[in-house]
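If your schedule permits, I should be very grateful for your opinion on a structural question. The matter concerns a single protein, recorded as an amino acid sequence and a row of backbone structure tokens. Could you please explain, in whatever detail you think fit, how the structure tokens follow from the sequence? I set the record out below, with my sincere thanks for your time.

——
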Amino acid sequence: MKIRQLAKKELSTVQSIAHRTWPSTFANILSPEQIDYMLNWMYDLKMLESQLEKGHTFLLAEENGEELGFAGFELNYSEGPKAKLHKIYLLPEAQGKGAGKALLLEVADRARKAGQQGLLLNVNKYNQKAIDFYLKMGFVEIYKEVIDIGNGYVMDDVVMELNL
């Protein structure tokens, strides 16, 4: 398995994986309308390019030339200094192969090497599979928050942190 950083011209890969992952990941958590709304907002190419320009890093996990999943993170997100894992998704067929762990360890390693003291993330409070994964990786819950994302939708999240 290989983890590599994506260039601006490759951001459509992030968009493609998100569109192939979200419907099954959030099928029992969010309405199809909210999934579409969030995908069209969060994974719009202009939005991803804007994030890259603001210093976000996107990593891709691959195996034998096949894309498995991606992570997107930002250094110096919060006082501390702390990094923020904004996105990490694996294709359904890639889950259980260690790609999520490899991506998370790579993000944590890059953050640590950049002098970050912690790695923050938000996860939907009903996504127990993801919460269990993060707990296993050493994250702890620090608080819960509800974020209004417009169009009558909210993100109802657990905020977690990994000390680096």
The CA atoms of residues 68 and 97 lie 9 Å apart.
